[in-house]
Amino acid sequence: MDRAARRGYPEAVFCAGKTPAQVAGIAATIRARPDVTTLFTRAEPAHAAAVLAELPDARHDADAALLAWPPTPPPPAGGLVVVIAAGTSDLPVAREAELTARYLGRPTELVVDAGVAGLHRILRRLGLLRRARAVVVAAGMDGALPSVVAGLIPAPVIALPTSVGYGAAFGGLAPLLSMVNACAPGVAVVNIDNGYGAGHLAAQIAADPPIAPAPPATGSRPTPSAPPDTATTTLPAPDTATTTLPAPDTTVASRTTPDPARTAPATPDPAKITLAAPHAVEPAAPGAAQRPSPGPGAATPGRHAWIDVSAGVAGDMLLGALLDAGAGVAAVQRAVDAVVPQAVRIGFGQVTRAGLRAGRAYVEVVAAEPPRRAWTELRAVLAAARLPAAVRERALAVFARLAQAEARVHGIEPGDVHFHEVGALDAIADVVGCCAALHELGVTSVSAGPVALGSGRVRGAHGELPVPAPAVAELALGWRVCAGGPGELATPTGMALLRTFAPVCEDLPAMTPGVVGVGAGGRDRPDRANVVRMMIAAEGDAPPPVTVLLEANVDDLDPRLWPGVLAGLLDAGAADAWLTPIVMKKGRPAHTLGVLCPPERVARLRDLVFEHTSTLGIRESVRRRTVLERCLVPVRVAGEPVMIKVGHRGGVIVQAMPEFEEVAALARRLGRPQRVVLRQAAAAAEAAGLTPGAPAPAAG
């Protein structure tokens, strides 16, 4: 583990060809060296499970078949690396390249579906491509895209052939030869499907200044280079690999990052300031109205929050509810200052709404507000801000959702969106402040009830509009809504926060509330309390995670296709997929297809069911799924390792079963019946003490 000393770059473990037990042994060794950033590439599900058993906080990107530990990449520095996937089929290899460059410390941007079959798609990204220091182009089929890109931009192009194709593509050989014979100069070619090599080379080219090998300090992780002074770089929002927002055609002006030693303001004491609240509501009361911060050690990890938005939702209402629930104003102020220094002051006070007490968040803009703020500029500012990774990723996801809604409303590309109301400093404070408050309270999962949108008309930057406003209507798609009363009850910022934080709409789940926070809106109506309520579960009492069950009855599909359908659904992120034999009308035999998946995978898996089966409809229902904690423990059978999947709860083993695929593979190698090897593996597990009722294996 001295690659950092020799070359100045992270370690890498190529998992293909290694057994899960071997990979687990490597991960166990790495666990003792938190100063060594390590990438596990080409990790099949069994490899990933083995790594996560040893390094449970490692980041796992299943699409890229890559794991990274420690999970947080270094702050971006150096030149921008752009990775282009010619088609969605090239995305896994392109994603591997993009993540490799990011964990080597470069700012990255991923562009998907820009192949030469539609040349306009790459031409409209020239503004982004011409800002890049290095560009990776992943393409299969004819492999022509790298030559096209290299002829349009000044940066070097790294051609990454993929095995996507058929017939004369010869598993990627045809695009490899096309790329080696590229007409445009400045094209380097890596091996077929070598996303890691392409991303690594791009990161080396884009290093600024070039990295010199230097051994890290003993027992500590090397401090990454500080971000450059001119931050024109961007990072994609989490889990948006296939929906990365394009940059506009024109180059965005650089935004200078101030020197923290000269310009970082001292965190103001909110108890000593009285803010003129917007909409002519009560000012924050000094002193007594201020809620204390729980402090660095007070956050409780793994808590669930349920949000009551039956009276509407806005950014300041959500922030008020979080502050009322115990988040500290000082922590929120620090996070906002990290994004827009000395621009906004945050306050908190107690008010009444329809005779009920509520907390009121106040945002005072103390700096000049730019009239328009481009999404690409705002994304770069957020990416460069010194925020906890979870806060930054949530804030990026909120604004990405806003950009997509605004783009849909105005009929433009998301990268061309210029925010008006939602790009203002007070909206930035609402978004970043809510993300920071959730993080401080230790809230890791959120759900919410139906939202009231209002009725009537409202005046905005584009004149008088019906309620709900167009962007709110877009953001409400797929969520249960009602009018709830006259006026605008839901704002675009509030809806974007709600939809990003809460993946599912549900009534109050079974939970033991630990705290209730009530956040007030600006208006006080006598007929109803204009508030958002947030109920946060007590420590250790979060409800089981939400999953979605997709079901479809199929009676006319060739049975030989079902194994491939189930395998494809599992590869696409389903937690489980199965068939149940049924008898339909007129006595026809049929199957019910069941697919269990997390909410964020529903759209993709729904599309796959329609594409690969003959069903005309899919039923969807929200379920709560309780799972045992699990780990993989190796035992030896005939001198070779076999992984035992151990399910445990409360420190006691509940289930222990050999991994059947490994048993089957070993049986083939030994020339023995599978039932014999399965029995031997079960005996080895019992001999190792892996039996129900025994103590669970120690973590790690």
Structure description:
Helix 4 runs parallel beside helix 9 (195-206), helix 13 (375-384) runs antiparallel to helix 14 (389-410) and helix 14 (389-410) packs across helix 17. 30% of the residues lie in helices and 23% in strands. The strands form ten sheets. A five-stranded parallel β-sheet has the order 6-5-7-8-9. Strands 1-2-4-3 form a four-stranded mixed β-sheet, with helices on both faces. A four-stranded mixed β-sheet has the order 15-10-23-22. By secondary structure, it is of the alpha/beta class. It is globular.
Q: How far apart lie the N and C ends?
A: 19 Å
* Mean pLDDT, all residues: 79
Strand order of the largest sheet: 6-5-7-8-9
> Biggest sheet, open or closed, and with what strands and sense?
5 strands, parallel
Radius of gyration: 27 Å
- Proportion in β-strands: 15-25%
**3D shape:** globular
Count of strand segments? 30
Helical segment count: 21
